[in-house]
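TA notes, week 10

Several of you asked for a full example with nothing omitted. So below is the full record: C-alpha cells for the whole chain, then the designed sequence directly under it. When grading your own attempts, check the secondary structure regions first.
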C-alpha cells in the first residue's frame, strides 16, 4: 500500500475526525438510552451503560484535546453529539419500553369500544364528565407502550372524532394487560422495570 494514503494530513483531517464522530455517536446514543432507562425504572442496566459511555467519551474528548488546532475535530465532535442524540431517541422509540395511559373523551356511547378493549384483555375504566359543550364520557386505559399504535387505531375506528390524550406512566400497582408478545432482548429489558408494585 502506498504510504501517501496515510499521510499526516489524511490522518488529521479524515481518519481522526471520523473516529471522534463515531465515538461521540456511540457514547451519546448510550447516554440517551441510559437516561431513558433511568426514567423507566430500569435500574440494573443504566449503570452498566454509563460505565462504557464515559470511557468512550474520555477517548473522544482526549483526541480533541490532543488536537486543539484541528477544526475538523471540533466539527466531528459536535456532529457526533447531534447524530448520537437522534439515534438514541430513534432506538428508544423502536424499543417502546414502559407503560402509557390513554384518556378518551367522547359524547357518543362508548360501550362498544369498552367491550372490544376488554375482549382483548385491556383494562378499561369509564366515568361521566362535564365538558365545555355538555356531558361527556371519559374512558381510561393503561397499556404497554408497544401496544399504543394498535389501541389508538381501535379508538379511531370506534370514535373517529373523539378527543384522546396519551401520557407516560411511571408505575402501576395492579392492572389488566394482554399477553405480552415476545420481543426477545427487548422483552427481557422491559421485565427489569419496577412498574408492577406488589400490594
Amino acid at each position: 500500500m502506498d504510504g501517501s494514503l496515510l499521510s499526516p494530513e489524511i490522518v488529521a483531517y479524515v481518519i481522526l475526525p471520523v473516529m471522534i464522530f463515531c465515538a461521540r455517536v456511540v457514547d451519546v446514543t448510550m447516554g440517551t438510552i441510559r437516561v431513558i432507562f433511568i426514567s423507566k425504572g430500569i435500574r440494573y442496566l443504566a449503570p452498566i451503560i454509563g460505565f462504557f459511555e464515559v470511557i468512550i467519551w474520555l477517548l473522544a474528548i482526549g483526541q480533541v484535546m490532543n488536537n486543539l488546532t484541528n477544526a475538523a475535530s471540533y466539527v466531528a465532535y459536535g456532529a457526533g453529539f447531534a447524530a448520537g442524540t437522534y439515534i438514541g431517541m430513534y432506538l428508544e422509540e423502536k424499543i417502546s419500553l414502559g407503560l402509557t395511559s390513554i384518556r378518551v373523551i367522547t359524547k357518543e356511547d362508548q360501550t362498544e369500544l369498552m367491550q372490544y378493549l376488554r375482549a382483548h384483555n385491556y383494562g378499561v375504566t369509564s366515568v361521566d364528565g362535564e365538558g365545555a359543550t355538555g356531558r361527556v364520557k371519559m374512558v381510561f386505559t393503561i397499556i404497554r407502550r408497544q401496544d399504543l399504535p394498535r389501541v389508538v387505531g381501535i379508538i379511531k375506528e370506534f370514535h373517529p372524532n373523539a378527543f384522546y390524550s396519551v401520557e407516560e406512566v411511571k408505575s402501576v400497582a395492579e392492572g389488566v394487560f394482554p399477553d405480552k408478545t415476545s420481543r426477545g432482548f427487548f422483552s427481557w429489558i422491559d421485565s427489569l422495570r419496577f412498574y408492577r408494585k406488589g400490594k
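The chain has two domains: 3-95, 99-190. Use that as a sanity check on your answer.
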